[in-house]
C-alpha cells in the first residue's frame, strides 16, 4: 500500500479499528480498507453515513478511502468535515494538506484574508480553546492592571511620582482583544455552511443548466453556501463572486444538518 513518507500515519491505515457492537457496515468498511478493498470500503462508509451516522473518524476513514480511489475532491471535503467535527484530529489535517497540494492551484482557500485566516487557523482550533485563552489573558491583564492602579494610588498618598506605564498589562489586554475577536470569528464559522467542489463544474448565473456559465470550478475548491433550490446550490467564493452550482457537484463539509 503506497504511503507518503511525509506523513505515513495519515494514509497507511484507518484511524480506528472497529469497536465491539459497531454497526456492521462500518466494521466491514474498516476491515475492507485494511485489506485494500477500497471500492467495498467506500460503499460501506457511504452506507453508514447515509444511515445518519456522522463523526470525525468516519469522515476521516471515508476520506482516505476516497483518496485511494482518486476521488480527491470528495476526499478533501470529507477530511474538512472530519476537522469540523474534531479540529484536534491531526491525521486529518496532515492528509488534507497533502491532498490539496496535489490539486490544481485554483483550489486555494487563501484567495481572501478571511479564507486564509479560516483555513490556516480557525479550522484548526476549537471555540472552547479560544474562549479559555481569552479568559486566561483577561484574568492576567486584570491582575496586572489592578496592581498598577494600587501602586498609583499608594504613590499618590505618599506624594511620590506615578509608577511606570503598565506595559505588560497593556500587552495582555491587546492579546485578550485579539483572542476574543478570534473566538467570535470561530463562532461565526460554526454557523456558516461551507462545501467542497467534488467534481469539476461550471459556476452559473442561475439555478439551471440553461443559465449562463461564469467560469469553471475545480475539485477541492471551498465555497460558502447561501441557499439551496431544486437541486442547485447558491454559493459565494472567497473572492466574493456569487453563482449557482449543481448540488451533486458539492459535498457539505460544515453544519450539523445536511442541506442536500
Q: Using the 3D structure, state the CATH architecture of the largest domain.
A: Alpha Horseshoe
Mean pLDDT: 87
CATH topology name of the largest domain, in short, is: Serine Threonine Protein Phosphatase 5, Tetratricopeptide repeat
| Low-confidence region ranges | 1-8, 17-22
Radius of gyration, CA atoms, in whole angstroms: 24 Å
Total beta strand runs: 7
Question: Which class of secondary structure composition applies to the elements?
Answer: alpha+beta
What does this protein structure show overall?
This protein has helices spanning 8-11, 24-34, 38-50, 56-68, 72-85, 90-101, 113-120, 127-157, 167-191; strands at 194-197, 201-204, 213-217, 222-229, 232-236, 242-246, 250-252. By secondary structure, the protein is α+β, with helices and mostly antiparallel strands. The protein folds into 3 domains: 8-102, Serine Threonine Protein Phosphatase 5, Tetratricopeptide repeat (Alpha Horseshoe), CATH 1.25.40; 127-191; 194-252, Roll (SH3 type barrels), CATH 2.30.30. It has a 5-stranded antiparallel beta sheet. A two-stranded antiparallel sheet has the order 2-3. Strand 2 (201-204) and strand 3 form a beta hairpin. The radius of gyration is 24 Å and the shape is elongated.
